[in-house]
Specification:
4 helices; about 120 residues
């Protein structure tokens, strides 16, 4: 199977976009006083995931792509923490937290698979 030609062809980017949409929908229900706090942080972290995947894919070098995949993974971990916090604050239902957690775990697995694919056979620095 040929390698994906653009970032839009990457399954992990598609899944990250779906997660971002879900975060926007979920945070629309947050209290208004969180608009510039947790709502904004979660949205920025969510947008950062597919954005970093796309930017890395556009660099046309494997080391650069991997570096941006690590940035995407960092943003994803930040987002996962924020989802847990939103659940603790009862801004999200337990069901919504579980759903967002499952979606973000899938994105994480996709990022890890791509990182491992490009790092296979490379010495650890």
């Amino acid at each position: 199977m040929p390698a994906p030609s653009t970032f839009r062809d990457l399954r992990v980017w598609q899944d990250a976009m779906t997660l971002t949409e879900e975060i926007y929908r979920a945070t629309a229900e947050f209290p208004k006083h969180e608009l510039y706090g947790l709502t904004s942080q979660m949205r920025r972290a969510a947008v950062s995931v597919p954005s970093n995947i796309a930017e890395g894919k556009g660099r046309h070098s494997a080391p650069d792509f991997v570096r941006f995949l690590f940035h995407a993974r960092g943003s994803l971990l930040e987002l996962q923490t924020q989802v847990l916090l939103a659940g603790r604050l009862q801004y999200l239902s337990e069901e919504k937290c579980v759903g967002l957690g499952e979606c973000s775990d899938g994105v994480g697995r996709g990022l890890n698979a791509l990182i491992n694919r490009f790092n296979a056979g490379r010495p650890n620095d």
